[in-house]
């Protein structure tokens, strides 16, 4: 099916274009906050949902206050990068989107971080890409189950580490209609090569292979 026909059938083109047009104001928020449009503490609900392996993840659900509760809106599922928490400006993005667009946003802490649980017997603050990408799909499942979300108009947003995750999820989860990836982490080995001196890389790699903890 031609891409234009697909967008037309989903009636999603306006949603995508509107999200992309919101990028410049975010540059203002971080580079020069006094020139950014003020946010208005958008209403949000505390939410929690279960992952496929029965771990409870917790976060917030934002929706425009001007929309009736029964209105089914597109939903943008948002997760933070690496060890960051939802309070680390993820709520700022969600507030801005819901203030300026007729969409809802689902924001949550990754498993083992912030308000989210981890699997019994597993350590907190453990970062496994396979689990985090699976959890994004579980967040989509939760969003689709809500009466105020249009299940056919789901987008995902990630930054840094989760920016790489959403590229993966968008490729394998057919429910995703929009992927927004900010400064994505897509090649761990290449990034290591930029951070670690070449003369110690071989020894460091060997220690990883031997299962040693390097401090």
Automatic annotation (TrEMBL):
This is DNA, SC011. InterPro entries: AB_hydrolase_fold, FrsA_esterase, Xaa-Pro-like_dom. Keywords: Hydrolase. It comes from the Eukaryota. One of its GO terms (molecular function) is hydrolase activity, acting on ester bonds. Residues 61-191 form the Xaa-Pro dipeptidyl-peptidase-like domain. It comes from Aspergillus oryzae (strain ATCC 42149 / RIB 40).
């Amino acid at each position: 099916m031609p891409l234009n026909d697909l967008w037309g059938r989903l009636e999603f083109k306006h949603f995508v274009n509107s999200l992309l047009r919101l990028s410049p104001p975010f540059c203002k928020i971080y580079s020069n906050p006094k020139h950014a449009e003020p946010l208005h503490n958008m209403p949000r609900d505390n939410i929690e949902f279960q992952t496929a392996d029965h771990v409870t993840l917790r976060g917030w659900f934002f929706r425009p206050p001007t929309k009736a509760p029964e209105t089914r809106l597109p939903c943008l599922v948002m997760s933070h990068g690496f060890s960051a928490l939802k309070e680390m400006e993820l709520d700022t993005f969600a507030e801005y989107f819901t203030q300026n667009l007729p969409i809802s946003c689902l924001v949550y802490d990754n498993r083992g971080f912030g308000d989210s649980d981890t699997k019994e017997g597993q350590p907190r603050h453990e970062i496994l890409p396979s689990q985090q990408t699976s959890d994004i799909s579980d967040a989509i499942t939760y969003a689709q189950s809500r009466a105020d979300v249009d299940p056919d108009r789901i987008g995902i947003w990630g930054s840094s580490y989760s920016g790489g995750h959403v590229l993966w999820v968008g490729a394998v989860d057919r429910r995703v209609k929009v992927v927004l990836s900010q400064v994505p982490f897509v090649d761990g080995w290449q990034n290591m090569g930029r951070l670690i001196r070449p003369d110690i890389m071989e020894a460091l790699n060997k220690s990883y292979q031997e299962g040693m903890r390097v401090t």
